[in-house]
Structures are given as C-alpha cells and as structure tokens.
Amino acid sequence: MVISWIALGCIAAEDAGPTSFSRAPKEPAEAVVPTASTQRDGPWGESSFPDRQTVAALMPHLPAQASSVAIKPRRLLVFTPASDRAHAAVGAYGAAALWLMGQSNRIYQTTVVSDPEMLREEALKAFDAVVLNNTFGDGFGTGAEGEKRAAALLEFVRNGKGLAGIHGAVVVPNNDQPPDDPVESQYRLMLGCAFEKPACMAEAPLLKVEDPLNPICAAFHGNGRFALPFKDEIVQLKAPYSRHLLRVLVSAEMDTVPHQGSRADHDYPLVWIKPFDQGRVFFFALGHSPATFNDPVMLRVLQDGIQYVLGDLPANDTPE
Ligand SMILES: [Zn+2]
Q1: 287 CA to middle of ligand 1, Å?
Q2: 137 or 28, which is more confident?
C-alpha cells in the first residue's frame, strides 16, 4: 500500500526572496495549517502536518537563522517512508524538522510525500532539490517502475539540481546485490556508497569534524571534535564508497565506543558532500533516533546541507 501525504509550506513564492529574508515569528499556529491537498491518512492519522505536538517539540531546537539567503524561491521535495515501512516514525519527525526549518528561516518551501510517483521526471521539474529522508532504495518501487524513478532522480541531479540523503537512504536500490545495470551503478556513484551493515545500533561516538572551516560545518564553530549527545545507529558503508568520490565533513571515531564496526580502515563517515555532474549531493548518515532532530547542532548541519544542495550555500565539495 502506498500512502501519500503532502504538506505545502506557507511561504508564498514571492515571499521567499532575499528582499524579504527575515526571521519569521515562531508561531506554531501558523505552521500547522493543513492545505486542501493534505490527505487524512498521514503517518500519524492526522489531518495536519506537522501536528502541534511535533511543532512544539521541535521549535526550541531549530537554527535561529539561515546561513545564507535563498537567491530565489526554492522548493524542496522530501520523500519520506510511508507509515508501514521501516524508519516511518523517525522519518515523519525528521520531515517535520525539515519543513519547520524551511518555514521559520524562509529558505525553502517543502512538499512532503511518501508516494514514489512524485519521483517521476515530470513531477521533479517543480523542485530544486530532493531529500531522501530515511527512505530505502526499494521505496522507489520495484522492477521497471522503480528503475525509471531512480533514473529520473539521476538526471535531475546531473542537470544541476540537488539531492540530500538522510540515514536510511544509504540503502540503495537492490542494495544486497552487485549493481547489474548502469542505472544502479550510477545511482550508487551519485550517493557515493551502498550500505553494508550497522556498525552499531545505539552508540554515541566522538565525532571528528574533518573540515571545520567548511560552511556546512559552521554548527561546530571551528572545533575539530564533537561529543555526540545522544546514541544513534552508525552505518558501515561498502563499495563504491571511497574518499576519492566524495568529501567527508564529519566522521565517527568508533574506537571511542564499545561496538566499533568491522572496517579494517576504521572509516565511518557521517556527513559528506559531493558534486555530481552539474548537481550537488549532501549525505547525513545519522538520523535513526528522533533525538537527532532534537539536537540544535545536528539541525544546523542539516539546514546548511540543504542550503548547499539547493544552490544557496557554496561549499568546497572537492573529493579527497
Ligand atoms: Zn536505522
């Protein structure tokens, strides 16, 4: 069963330009008005998204401002797991955080969907960037339809748009098989990896900020280390992962926790960016735990990464 639900941000297109860039009042009542297109079978069984309780929980943690103005009105498509799929609850919570950041800081307008039909070529034209928000590769659908959507997303990014992946999105289509066609191979190259296994399910490793001066690392204020204040699943990556393909901004120092994963090179990247033809890719591998979205530092990293893929925050994305 495919459940789709759409929440359109309240920022009018003409309202999101740089001339009107300002701190929006944090009024939950303004943020929860559902549109006519919002279906009533959303993940919480609610007619409004985000619901008031979620807004109230997230509001105190949102970045106070954006790192950059939107150089033009931006539209973000957040593809999130349907309620019967893995990571559905945390996906919905993360989608609410992304929605609220765009709304509060007037940097993008958000459409949240679970229906993979929104990944078809025609539908993607309306957007500047797509977030694969805790989705799995098979969430695209199976067979020829799934492959067509993966191909459409590839072309979307190749042609200059943006892609952000959060946590579960590290699982690529047909993840457990070697890629057997050009679309699958290219899709993995676009993300920079496939998923091998969880290195651990719930640990709080010390984070190494590998590029402290990168604008997407502004949340760390130039520090090279950050003590993760919550436990999360740390993913272990497999081919085509290579630091030659992408620029690692933050990684996990797994020798600081009991469950350390099994990579011989101890390489556990958590945040990376990369150019992909004319487009941009940002990946944020934390986000199994809802606590991720209650952490102001993590939200700032996410917001800056989204602004990078939208084309509003230039960042050095040269691979190593
Ligand atoms: Zn997970």
Answers
A1: 7
A2: 137
Q: How far is the CA of 77 from the centre of ligand 1 (A)?
A: 21
Single pTM value for the model: 0.87
The residue behind tokens 């130039």 is: 222
Phi and psi (nearest 5°) for 304? -70, -40
How far, in Å, from the CA of 260 to the mean position of ligand 1?
16
Q: What is the pLDDT of residues 223-251, one digit of tens each?
A: 999 999 999 999 999 999 999 999 999 99
Which H/E stretch holds residue 78?
strand 75-79
CA of 87 to the centre of ligand 1 (A): 7
Span 113-124, average pLDDT: 94
- Would you list the domain boundaries of the chain? 13-310
How close is the Cα of 141 to the center of ligand 1, in Å?
Answer: 20
What's the gap in Å between 85 CA and the centre of ligand 1? 12
Domain 13-310: what homologous superfamily? Class I glutamine amidotransferase (GATase) domain (3.40.50.880)
Residue 72 — pLDDT band, cuts 50, 70, 90? very high
The DSSP result for 168-202, as a single string, is GGGS-TTTTS---SHHHHHHHHHHT-EEEEEEEEE
CA distance 286 to 296: 14
